[in-house]
Amino acid sequence: MEETQVLEINLISAQGLKEPTGKLRRLQTYASVWVDSSSKLRTRIDRIGSENPIWNDKFVFQVSPEFLSSETSGVSIEIYAVGYLRDHLIGTVRFLVSNFLPTAAVKVPSLVALQIRRPSGKFHGVLNIAAMVMDASELPADFFKSVQEIRRSRKMRKSRSAVSSSENGSADDGESSKENSVCGSVNFSDDGTDSTASSPMPSPLRDWNAVRNLAGKNHVRSSSDGGGLMCCFLMKSSGMLPPRRKMTDG
Predict the structure, then answer these.
(1) Consecutive 10-residue runs of the chain (250 residues): their mean pLDDT?
(2) Range of 162's domain?
(3) What is the predicted pLDDT for the residue at 151?
(4) N or C: which end of the chain has fewer CB within 10 A?
(5) What integer pLDDT is reported at residue 134 of this predicted model?
(6) What are phi and psi of 56, to 5 degrees?
(7) CB burial string 210-221: b at 16+ within 10 A, e below
């Protein structure tokens, strides 16, 4: 079986976002990113940048060489504005991997500025991202196991919290519900077997930072330094992701 590789995506910032119509609060935004729509990850919420947010959050996806070489393989990104009752889609970006990255592992990230497509279909604003391919062997040896344990622990805590809230008759405020709005099923593989963990992901940084601390990877900045790293391993048992439909978004 061919050795898998890791695709690192850094959602750096955006400029010139168009605010949703009829907004009643200062623009606060986050971005959702995925290579498989069933498993979406997201950045922290930028509360001060308004139309020009800065996230500087990193995400890593385990992918096959076939995925990297396919002309239709890409990373999808959606940018949302936090709302009182619901979050509003500001725009989307489709990053076609083959257009910007070599298939071999390269230690230098490619910096790309991509136009943001509004829900109306018009382009407005720019998303700045960095992308890089790494060897999976560069990750800590106990990486998969550590992530599984953290996911399981977080899921148990959330279950206990939900039961406690139900018994006390309390409810989360609107902002809290929005920060828990993105969830997904993430597949991890440690020794060749598949295991699945599904839970809300309000703060994806904490998962990876906990794994990084366990592994002693001090060279990666923590969330307190203004940047973070989140992982999402989406390999199927066959070692390949399903084929993607080609899209034309810039």
Answers:
(1) 77 92 82 90 92 94 84 92 91 88 68 94 94 77 65 74 66 39 32 30 38 37 43 40 42
(2) 5-233
(3) 65
(4) N
(5) 80
(6) 50, 45
(7) bbbebeeeeeee
Question: What does the DSSP assignment read for 183-195?
Answer: EEEEEEESSS-EE
Q: How far apart are CA 240 and CA 237, in angstroms?
A: 8
Nearest Cα neighbor of 155 from 180, 173, 179 is 180
For residues 100 and 119, the answer to whether their CB atoms sit within 8 Å is no
Instruction: Give the total residue count for the chain.
Output: 250
Residue 224 in any domain: the answer is: yes
Structure tokens at 69: 């070489």
**Which residues is 94 bridged to in the sheet?**
76
- For 66, the 3-state DSSP assignment is helix
Give domain status of residue 238, yes or no.
no
Number of H helices, E strands in the chain: 5, 11
What residues have CB less than 8 Å from 84, skipping those under 6 apart?
Answer: 24, 25, 174
**Integer Cα distance of 248 and 207 in angstroms:** 33
pLDDT at 142: 64
Report CA 157 to chain centroid distance, whole Å.
Answer: 22
The burial class, CB within 10 Å (0-12 / 13-18 / 19+), for 2 is exposed
Q: What is the pTM of this model?
A: 0.62
Domain assignment of residue 250, yes or no: no
Residue 75 placed within a domain: yes
Q: How many domains are there within the chain?
A: 1
CATH of the domain at 192: 2.60.40.150
Concatenate the DSSP letters of all residues of 88-103 into one string: EEEEEEEEEHHHH--S
